[in-house]
Structures
1.
Amino acid sequence: MTPQQLGLGFELDGPAEAPPLPRPARARSSPKARVPTAPAAQASVALSDVERMAHLLEAHPDYRVLRRLVPTLHFGRAPQGPVRTLLVLDTETTGLEAAKEKVIELALLRVAVDTATGLPVGPVQVYDGLEDPGRAIPPAITDITGITDAMVRGQRLDEALIAQMMVGVDLVVAHNAGFDRPFVEARLPEFARLPWACSFADLDWKALGQSSAKLESLALACGWFYDAHRAETDCHALLAVLAQPQARFGHAKPSEGSDLGPTGLSLLLAAADQTHHRLQATGAPFEAKDALKARGYRWDGQQRVWGTTLRSEAALADELVWLADAVYSGPTRVRVEALSALQRYSTRGGAPSLRTVGTSALGL
C-alpha cells in the first residue's frame, strides 16, 4: 500500500520502507573493553520522510509504531546526585542446567546510575565474548541464538578484562538472574562476591499492567523491537527498558507533565538493599497444598516442602499470620532463610532461623 493510499498527504522520494539499521558489531574477547559506536544512520534520502510517516501514524489512535532499538553508548546527562555502578549481564549457554551445561557467550554493560533520578549517566562500557564449550552446541541452541560451533571454536572469555569491569561494581543485574548467576559463578567464581538483582523477579510487572515479563514483550511496550537471543543485544534492550519510568508501563498513558515515578533501575537498587526471606512451610498438612499453591508457594521435591520468598520483614510477618490462619492448626516452627543480594539467585543458602507460627510473638 502506498503512502497516498494511506492518506498521509506527502510524497516519498525513495522506497516506502527504509532498510533496517545494521546490527552493532560484537567484540570477541578483545584485548580491552570497548565502547562500541552506534549504528550509522541509513544513507537514504527517504529516511526523514519515513520518520514523518511514523509520527503521523503515532498520532492516530488506531495505529502503533515500533522502532528498532538502537543501543545508547553514552548518556550525556549530568548526574544530580551520587552514582552507583551497575553491570547489566546476559549469557547464552548450551542448555538449561548450570551443573551440566556451559556458557558460550557472556555480555556485560558497565554503566553508572544517578541515584537521584534512577537514570543512566556517562559512557557505557561493553564486553561481549564467546567461549568454546568443548562440545558440540545443540542444534536447538543454534536455532535460538545463531551461535554455531565454528563461531566459538578456539574462543575463550577474557577473564582479565572481565575482572577489570567488575572493580567497583555495586550491583549485577540480569533479567533472569536465577538462570544466569549459577552459570556465571560456575565459570567465573569472582561473581559470587558481588550483589545481584533480577529485573524479571524483583519488579512487579503484572502490577504495572504487563501480561508478560519477557524482555521482548517489555521492549514492545516501550515501542521497540530488536534482534533477541544474543547476549549483548539483550543487555542493551534490558538497560533501555529499565531506564524507563515505571508509569510508562501502566494501563493508562501518563498525562503531560505528570510524575512518571521511579525507573526500573532505581527500583532494583532499592530492592538490592533489602533482605529477602525464603520461607519453608515445614510440616504443612497435605490438605493445605491447594491453598499453598494458590498463595504462590512452590513444591521442593528434594526437600519435600512447600516454599515461598518474601521481600521484606513486614511481608514475612504477614505471611506467618496467614499460615496460622489457613494452614496450621496450632503453634508450629517454620524454617526461614535470610537472603541478601549476595546470596539471592545463587545456589548458596542464606542465614537460617526458625520462626513460630500461631503465636503473637515471632520468636526464634
2.
Amino acid sequence: MAKFARGEWMHAGMSDLPISLDAATVRAGAVTILDGISLSISPGEPTLLVGPNGSGKSTLIRLGMGLIEASAGRVQWGGRTADDGKRRAMVFQRPVMLRRTVAENVAYALASRGIPRGERAGRTSALLERVGLAQLSDRAARRLSGGEQQRLALARALARDPEVLFLDEPTASLDPAATKAVEDIVRATATSGVKIVMATHDLGQARRLAGDIVFLVRGRVIEHAPAARFFSTPATPEAAAFLRGDLVI
C-alpha cells in the first residue's frame, strides 16, 4: 500500500483547527445526547473518542463535522462559528456506495469538489493507489468486501483534500486483516498532516492509533488526556473501570 508524503494534504490559508466546543449540548426532544461538552481538538496526532455504547461518540463526531447543530452552547472551527465545511470530511461506519465503479465513486467525489474533468483520472488513480484499490478500479463498488468499501470510502473522503477527517467506528464490522488495512491508511493520513478524529469501541485500536483520548460517559467528557497517560494512569474512577472491562453506565 502506498505511503502518504508528509504534508501532502496540508492546506494554506485559514484553518478549521482548533475545533472548540464551549458547553455544547445536543438534545433530541426530551433526551440529552451531549451534555455541556467543553473540548478543544488541536492539530497533531489522532484524537480517539472512546466510551460505552450510547455515550455520545457518534453524535460528537457529527457535531464536530458540522452535520448537526448544538441545541445550546457553541462550536467553533478555527475561531469561526460557521463555514462551508469544505476542509472537513467524514467516513461513516457503514458508508453508502454509489451504483458505479470504484474509480467512478472517487471521480464523483473529485467532481463534487470542483476538480476539472481533465485532472480527475490522474487524481483518481493516485487516491486508489494510496488505499490499495488500484487493481479494483473497474469493479462495481457495491461488489467490494466490507473492508474494501471502507478503503474506498476513505479514498472518497481524501478526495476532498481535508484538513480534518472524522471517522465514526470505521472498522466496527471488519475482520482483523481488513481492520489493519484501514488502520494503515489512517496512520499514514495522520502522518501526512491531516487531523484524525475517530470514534472507536476497540481499546486495542485506541492504543495503536491515538495521540490523545476523549473518554465519554452519558454524553459528558469524563476525561481528556494524552493516550499514554490515559491508559497507564486514568484520572477518574469511571475511566479506570472502563479500562478494566467493567460496565460503566
3.
Amino acid sequence: MPPLILSGDTISVRLESKHLEVIRWAEKGVKEEARIKVPMIDIDRVVLIGRPNVSIAVLQRLMLEGIPSYFLTSRGRWIGSLTPDNNKNAFRRIHQFQLSGNKELALEIARKLVRVKIKNSRRVLQRLSANRQATSNYLQQKVDSELNGLADKAEAAETVESLRGYEGMAAAVYFSRLGCFFPDDVPFRERNRRPPKDPANALMSWTYTVLLGEVEGAVRAHGLDACIGFLHDISYGTPSLALDLMEPLRAPVCDLLVLNMLNHNILKKEDFRFDAEHDAYYLKDESHRTFFTSYENAMTRRFSMEKGGAHTDFRKVINDSVIAVLHAMEGRQDYDFFIMP
C-alpha cells in the first residue's frame, strides 16, 4: 500500500470513525480546499514532510493502529519516527550491547556489507550499460575490473579502517561512471551533499533519506538498537546500524530509481527549487507525491533472485538484511546480504 504523504499544503487531518479526512490547499497560494477521506485500513505508514497540521489525536490513533509515522524536513533531512511500541525484546538489545565491542564480529559483518555494496554497484552499471553503444564497452570493462578488484580487497580487509578506504575508492569509480547515464538537462558530475548542489544530487539525497527511514524502522521492529552498527562508527544521533544495512541497497534501489524518474521525465528540472540561503537544490513540495508514487512502485515490484526462484521485493530484502545481522549475532556463518541478480 502506498504511504499517506502529509506535507506543507496540509491544512488539517481529522479523525472520523475508521478513516482520516485530509484537507489540503487545492492550489498553492489559493484559498480553495480539497478534501480526501483515507480509510485507516488502507494506510501502512505515514510520511510527514515539513510541518503539516496534524493533531496529537491523529498521531495517537496511528500508534494504536500500529501505523508508523516518519518525519522529514522540507529539505529532505531525516528527523525521526513515531512507531508503535513493538520493540519489546530487551534481551536482544542487551546481547547487541555486549557484542558492540567485538571487533572481530564487526569486521566480519562490515566486510560482507562492503563487498556486497561494491558488487551491487558493479551490477547496476552493467545493467545501465547493456543498452549503450559498443563505444562504451571498453570503459565499462575497465570499471568492472576495478570494482571486482576492490570487492576482493574488501573481502580480505584486515581492519575496518582499511575496509572503509576500499569502499571510498569503489564509490569514486562508481560515481564517475554513473554520471554517464543521467539526462543532459539534469546532469550528475560528482556526488555532493549537505547541501546538494544540483537537482541530481538533491534527488539522490532525498531518496537515500526515505530509504534510511524504512531500514531504521525494520531494525527497531526486530528489537535492535539502530544506533549500534558495525561498519559506521557509533556516534551521537547517528543510526549506524540502519546506515550499515542501507549500503548494499543504495545503488540497486535508490540510484536506479533516481535514473528512472529523471530519464523518463517523471521528475524534471522544474520539479526542483534553488534555495539561495543554503546554496542548495531541493525537491519542490508539490513534487513529493509524484516521487512517492515511483518510490512505492520500486519498493513493491516483485522479482526473483534466480531463474525459477521465489519472488521477493525490496521491503522483504530489508527485513532479510536485519535477520542476517541477527544470525551473525548468534554466531552463524551462513548469512549474507542482498546481492543484485
